[in-house]
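Protocol step 4 of 5: obtain the predicted structure for the target chain.
Materials: sequence only (see below). No template structures provided, no constraints applied. The aim of this step is simply to have a reference model before the mutagenesis design in step 5. Sequence pasted as it appears in the construct record:
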Amino acid sequence: MTGTTDLIKLTAAETAAKIASGEVTAVQVTEAHLARIAAVDEKVHAFLHVDREGALAQARAVDDKRARGEKLGPLAGVPLALKDIFTTKGVPTTVGSKLLEGWIPPYDATLTQRLKAADVIILGKTNMDEFAMGSSTENSAYGPTGNPWDLTRIPGGSGGGSSAALASYQAVLAIGTDTGGSIRQPAAVTGTVGVKPTYGGVSRYGMVAFSSSLDQGGPCARTVLDAALLHEAIAGYDPLDSTSIDAPVPSVVEAARNGNVAGLRVGVVKEFGGEGYQAGVMQRFNESVELLREIGAEIVEISCPSFDLALAAYYLIAPSECSSNLARFDAMRYGLRVGDDGTRSAEDVTALSREAGFGDEVKRRIMLGTYALSSGYYDAYYGSAQKVRTLITRDFEKAFESVDVLISPTTPTTAFPIGERADDPMAMYLADLCTIPSNLAGNAAMSLPCGLAPEDGLPVGLQIIAPAMADDRLYRVGAAVEAAFIARWGHRLLEEAPSL
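Step 4 output (structure tokens):
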């Protein structure tokens, strides 16, 4: 009989195999993770809502399927933490905001439906920056999440709850969303794996919108293979999403099982380095470059000059789309309603509700976006940012003519202390410096662990970027790098994390 501690340390592939063979039951696995949540989440605060009864019911259904002799899927019975931005029928969905506190959606997002169809056990909903606006999970209306490596530091954002749940062994898998790096950046600072699929590769139906041309859901895991298994479960065309790509899902699981870089040309992005980057981050990145060379990749320096403009373009495009998307939260149909005492107009009730319900960062971005879209400024700001977006896309296209993938550090620094950048939005925005270009261009990208920074002993992430619809290249390269690092270290990086 496998002990509780052993059960929570298994990979998703290992967990599913043990359930399918009958060595353990899905209920036992689920109970082990619920017990872990009860033991440590008061300190970590990864979850906003734990659906204990729902998770156990899903687990019993998996065990019943096995008892009837039905074939189980590759992730059947594996516990998962779901970012609180996807609607889940009968389960609260708050998007980290007081504006939607207690809201119970009447329907499932497409991604939620696909998880359930794959017999994945949804443990609950994870903490996040309000409406996915942030880089640290400090902007949640329900308080910050701690990084399991050091609870006084941020776990990344906006999906810090999902990354922290993985790093603290409260869930085997997790789901995040990536608008400017919110899957990859949390993965980097917690020593986990996070993937932003090609834009349109995973349905956005039922995902509360922040910036519609940038938002993308994707897998979070502790290994590259686990991320690939989850990626395949949630990806694919959805007629309910007008941006969904009607094309076969790349063979990501096969790529993850057969990772190698022999004969691949790997581009090192010149613009991602230098001033502003922590010395230990660059040290681990340079070691990763040499490791790739050792295992058979050809290393090529690539210049993408428009990448220097990505941060500025993003912080015009994303707030503009946020300003438009969040106009629907008017206190008339659902969510928080303040001041409706019969003496005020609908406009006054809307204003009072939005004032009380939105946090500072959401208000800041709505104001920025409204200004950028206003008459007389549209062309100067939003229009110019879209032109820069085109230049960034062209830089990627030119780079991929000569290399198969690009690499860079995922973040310029390791996890910073909670509160350190709370009063400095510009310093906070710089956390996404390396990740934003891929969102603007819509291509695929991954972060995986590449060691600990010598200054502070905290995880560093390696970013791998592939062309649109070439997501399998991420997993091919990621699996090879992961295996080489494990061979060098003798274990997975997370095994060095302090025990909670």
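Step 4 remarks: The domain at 4-263+445-496 is CATH 3.90.1300.10 (Amidase signature (AS) enzymes). The first helix runs from residue 4 to 9.
Proceed to step 5.
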